[in-house]
Amino acid sequence: MTRRHRAWRASAPPRSTANSACWAVVALESTIITHGMPWPSNVETAKKVEQAVRDAGGVPATIALLDGKIRVGLDDDTLLWLGQARSVLKVSRADLGFALASGAAGSTTVAATMICAHLAGIDVFATGGIGGVHRGVEHTMDISADLTEFVQTPVTVVCAGAKALLDLPRTLEYLETMGVPVVGYGTDQFPAFWSRSSGLTLPLRADGAADIASMIAMRGRLGLAGGVVVANPVPAAHEIPREEMESLILQGVADATREGVSGKSVTPYLLGRMLELTGGRSLATNIELVLNNARVATEIALALRSLSR
Ligand code: PSU
Ligand code: MN
């Protein structure tokens, strides 16, 4: 084992180092840049999201793998490179060790970003939508490793629910079985990414960042492992109604099945297909919901910092 590997093992962080010090740090993922949005919207959005965190009083830390290292916080040149690079690995929990050992460039999914954020002592992370149970799971067994990450890694992820292209009822059932709290932020409904509601009711609701922070602190005191999903609906002005999305989603999922898309490619394929089928509207909504999540995540990071003072 090399010294670098030992160093990582030895550096299991004390809880909350980054946030409880003096900054409210918000982690951001990079798969959304490399596999979730087309160039140049991906880089423009990444920069806007970082700025939204700063404007709200936080410090953004976009996470990616470069030259065999976990990079927590990227400069603009690196963002620009990532946004145009063709051969960046989409790295989830299963790929993290391989990607770092090989030195290949990697973008981190929700699961991998949670792991890296926790190693860096960051408690809060903003993204678009988490992965989940895919439609057709009874044939494919396709369940995102994002879901099992919440069981083991204590990071709070602010998202607009899970992408409506997933099987949302099964995604919620799975999270419930695994003991993962899904908290509606100012809503009783599980959001459906592009739409404010999936029609599914959530058992937990919080109407402000302070309530989320108290809940996270209480979970810490109880010694409960794992993270929290904060489900924050897209602002009404930017939503695409659920009925409008549903027929396009059915079409996109059918296309994916017909073309034999599987594994890691499913989510990027479907996001790209939705972009085509909505004539770009899904991307505009995606950008707005990520910005909104970044603001809420910063408020939660600030509230957590106040609690630890
Ligand atoms: N949601 C988006 N864009 C994305 C993703 C989610 O709006 O690019 C990415 C996230 O990185 C998420 C991943 O963790 O897709 C899930 O992929 P999979 O279903 O293969 O686990
Ligand atoms: Mn999958």
From TrEMBL:
The catalytic residues are: E29 (proton donor), K163 (nucleophile)
The Gene Ontology biological process terms listed for this entry are: nucleobase catabolic process
Q: Name one GO molecular function term.
A: hydrolase activity, acting on glycosyl bonds
**Subunit details:** Homotrimer.
Q: Where does Mn(2+) bind?
A: D142
Q: Which co-factors does it depend on?
A: Mn(2+)
Q: What name is this protein filed under? A: Pseudouridine-5'-phosphate glycosidase
Query: Quick check: keyword Zinc-finger in the entry?
Result: no
Q: What does this protein do?
A: Catalyzes the reversible cleavage of pseudouridine 5'-phosphate (PsiMP) to ribose 5-phosphate and uracil. Functions biologically in the cleavage direction, as part of a pseudouridine degradation pathway.
Q: Which family would the database say this protein is a member of?
A: Belongs to the pseudouridine-5'-phosphate glycosidase family.
Q: What is its EC number?
A: 4.2.1.70
Q: What InterPro entries does the record point to?
A: Indigdn_synthA-like (IPR022830), PsuG (IPR007342)
The UniProt entry, under PANTHER family, shows: CARBOHYDRATE KINASE PFKB DOMAIN-CONTAINING PROTEIN (PTHR42909:SF1), ZGC:136858 (PTHR42909)
Positions of substrate binding: K90, V110, S144, A145, D146
Q: Which UniProt keywords apply?
A: Glycosidase, Hydrolase, Lyase, Manganese, Metal-binding
Q: Which reaction does it catalyse?
A: D-ribose 5-phosphate + uracil = psi-UMP + H2O
Major enzyme class: lyase
Instruction: Record the organism.
Output: Gluconacetobacter asukensis
Q: Superkingdom of the source?
A: Bacteria
Pfam families for this protein: Indigoidine_A
Q: One cellular component GO annotation, for this chain's record?
A: cytoplasm
**Which gene does this sequence derive from?**
psuG
Q: How is the cofactor bound?
A: Binds 1 Mn(2+) ion per subunit.
Per the UniProt entry, the signal peptide is none
